[in-house]
Predict the 3D structure of the following.
Amino acid sequence: MNPWAIVAIAGLMETGWALGLKYSDGFTKLMPSVVTVVLALGSFYLLAVAMKSLPVGTAYAVWVGIGAIGTAVAAVFLFQEPVNLMRVAGVLLILAGIVALKFA
């Protein structure tokens, strides 16, 4: 599988575990806690696999960026977090950074 596809999947899993942290209520709810830990471990594993053939700095930055964007967007819908110009600009800057690193 393409290592960039692996990083993308790992980034989506990062979004899942970040959201899971909210649902786990500080790891006091069993099932959300278990799902969060499984997604975190899976995300770390896939990132490590992708880093066998990708530059560490670029792979890590893209992984974090996908997770950050995914979490920010999902939080708007799941937790009614506010949408304003600064938040949208921040997400767009992260996206621009991911694209720049991918093509660097």
